[in-house]
Amino acid sequence: MRICLVKSTLFTSGLLILSGCAGADPLYMSDRWNLPSANSRNLVLQVAEPSDLRSGRSDPTYDATLAANAVKRLRDGKIKKIESTAVTQIGNSQSGGGGGGS
Questions:
Q1: Which distant-in-sequence residues (6+ apart) come within 8 Å of 44 by Cβ?
Q2: What is the DSSP letter of 22?
Q3: Higher pLDDT residue, 24 or 93?
Q4: Structural domains in the chain (count)
Q5: Residue 93: inside a domain, yes or no?
Q6: Which residues are the signal sequence here (predicted)?
Q7: Which of 40, 44, 53, 69 has a CA-to-CA distance to 85 between 20 and 30 Å?
Q8: pLDDT tops 70 at residue 97
Q9: Whole-angstrom distance, CA of residue 40 vs CA of residue 76
Q10: In this predicted model, what pLDDT tens digit does every residue of 47-85 receive, in sequence order?
């Protein structure tokens, strides 16, 4: 009987302690969690010119013939093959290794 009383007291006190955590949950804090616009807000903070998100900038030095030729080759089935490279050409040339003392 005494063990049941101790168990129920511990259970009830645990529930009371956990119910106090709801106020500290960031999901319910308006200054910490802004789900509907969190991604757009982060994007705006990372962009140098926020107006670029509304419309892009033109580049007067850009020549579209390279892109147009690539699309033409794709449509004609004359796709250029990618040059093969070895992993050793791309990878780290340093030897790995453990240190070690004397």
A1: 50, 53
A2: G
A3: 24
A4: 1
A5: no
A6: 1-24
A7: 69
A8: no
A9: 40
A10: 888 888 888 788 888 889 989 999 999 999 998 888 877
CA 29 to CA 34: how far, in whole Å? 9
Whether this prediction's pTM lies above 0.70 is answered by: no
On whether residue 34 sits in a domain, the answer given is: yes
Question: What is d(CA 5, CA 83) in angstroms, rounded to the nearest whole number?
Answer: 76
DSSP per-residue codes, 69-91: HHHHHHHHT-PPPPPP--HHHHS
Q: Domain for residue 37, yes or no?
A: yes
Pair 34, 41: CB distance under 8 Å? yes
Tell me, yes or no, whether 71 lies in a domain.
no
Q: Contact at 8 Å (CB) between 40 and 49?
A: no
44/52 Cα distance (integer angstroms): 10
Q: Quick one: tokens of 100?
A: 């070690």
Q: Find where tokens 């804090």 sit.
A: 29
